[in-house]
Amino acid sequence: MLDYLVTLPRPVKRQILLLIDVVLVPASLLIALALLFDTAPASELLWSALPLFFIAPILATPVFLKIGLNRIKLMAFEVHDMRRGAFAALSVAILTAILTYALGLNIPRAVVMLTGPVFLLLHLGIRTLGRNFLVRRFNDGAGRIPVAIYGAGSAGVQLLAALRQDFQMRPVTFVDDNVTLQSMTVSGMEVCSRSRLEALVKSKEVERVLLAMPSVSEPKMRRLTQELAEFGCEVHALPSYSELVEGTGLASNLRPVTADRLLGRDKVDLETPEVARAYAGRRVLITGAGGSIGSELCRQIILRGPQRVTLVDHSEYALYTISQELMPLAALHGVELVTRLGSVCDKERMSNVMAESETDIVLFAAAYKHVPLVEENEIEGLRNNLFGTLTTAEAAQNAGVERFILVSTDKAVRPTNIMGASKRLAELAIQDLQTRSEVTKFAMVRFGNVLGSSGSVIPLFQSQISAGGPITLTHDKITRYFMTISEAARLVLLAGAYATGGDVFVLDMGAPVNIRDLARRMVELTGLTVRDESNPHGDIDIQTVGLRPGEKLYEELLIGNNMLPTPHEKIMRAEERKFSQIEMARILKQIRTAIAANDPLKLRAIIEASVDGFHVAETGLDDVV
């Protein structure tokens, strides 16, 4: 019967609750009369009060509807809902008094005085009984996880109220370290100690503990989580309901740190009309489309309304992932999306892809960019970063592509590593190609470190913080220029719009950021503290481990000081030394020979002789630049 009532539609449930309350009116009157049978004959009292049994319920019905007595959800019936019941009881007493006086009924005044309180007791009793039946039914439900709520404060009480209507978890007990609360009952549930909780977990009466203590500090919360996890149960830390409503609640113990909050400056607005005009209705090819920069370029380009976007990547998984993400966006904006597997080192493949897609603009984001890996694999680093760029650029020139934009790096300026040197040589090769190009305009964009991109310090530091530290720095004085991934992508798009041929564009990124300061800021934004001499009880330690091979203390954006303005005040065009066609041909021939001979020592010697400012950085802790 109870299961049938639970499945009834809500309007039917409301009608049943209203009917019960209406029936309680004559029932209350009858009980009040029964209490006075000792002072007057029963038959005489009942006969005198007979009109009330019919008229009072009729008049009470609209009052109950107005109060909303039947709109209180039975499972959510709590103390504050009793006020409506009290108001309804007062209304019943007033109606009884008015009818008794208006109809001239010979009824003792005590009947009027008793009817209201009796109605209230019956109303609350039936509601409470019904609620308890429902709670017991849900608590006995199979498959619900038995949980303990750690914290019997207001957040715990709110959580209990929610869980009583949950179909996945069944609250068993409160747990609190406050000795005065232990063995007490809060919201109908017993409060136990931590030792009692351990016994409940061992007996399988509790499988999960929910921490409902939003005011507790992060370090204490983490220690408590570790201690409870040793009992052999799951431990979940939950935000307060006020945080959830305000949108500040967190599903994890660590608050996420966004790249924008770490930038240390205002983001540069790179949204200009030139970008929209440069790409609207065009056919764009993006290499390295599955990478951090390439994928963001794809997203930004589609929003500019091109006719077709061709995604090129040598990684099948990366290409599949970005294509699956972009298909709905491309369909929404009416953009044709094409995916092509292939290596930028394969000239025939790049030529065929450009021919079939009738490419107007190439955005070249394919590169090996991780400094230590390229340092250990210099042959492949040069083959991909230099000759992959040159191969694709020559294919673009032969296909009559209008613009070719190379994504470069600040590590190309006076490089101390093979990755930076390979990108500087790619810049020089592209500028040399420009001297023989009648149609295609070649340009380069020099990036600082892109916050949040794969292999950057942000994901590394976040994983180290999540693991409890330590954060590892290569040097206390190391600094870097930083930009957001959206700034990086839009800078490429603007370069495409501003390109006149052979340009090197750089973004004014303000002052460089000290990496130790960045690490400290990340720890603090996460809600933790740095452990050092001034704070020995902090949460996260920062350790210095020494510079890696090829790494230098600071990066630069320009070779020399020759800068020209662009239509955008925050974007500069660099004027730097270029190689002659003969010099460039000689260097490329030498590098090809070294790669063919698989001779990394000879390759390094060629780079040192050819790239301005190239030098090998020391890796000790006392480096000075």
UniProtKB/TrEMBL annotation:
The chain crosses the membrane at residues 16-39, 45-65, 86-104, 110-130, 142-163. Residues 284-575 form the Polysaccharide biosynthesis protein CapD-like domain. Gene3D superfamilies: NAD(P)-binding Rossmann-like Domain. InterPro entries: NAD(P)-bd_dom_sf, Polysac_CapD-like, Polysaccharide_Synthase-Rel, SAM-dependent_MTases_sf. It holds the Pfam family Polysacc_synt_2. The keyword Lipid metabolism does not apply. Keywords: Membrane, Transmembrane, Transmembrane helix. Belongs to the polysaccharide synthase family. PANTHER family: POLYSACCHARIDE BIOSYNTHESIS PROTEIN EPSC-RELATED, UDP-N-ACETYLGLUCOSAMINE 4,6-DEHYDRATASE. This is FlaA1/EpsC-like NDP-sugar epimerase. The lineage of its organism: Bacteria, Pseudomonadati, Pseudomonadota, Alphaproteobacteria, Rhodobacterales.
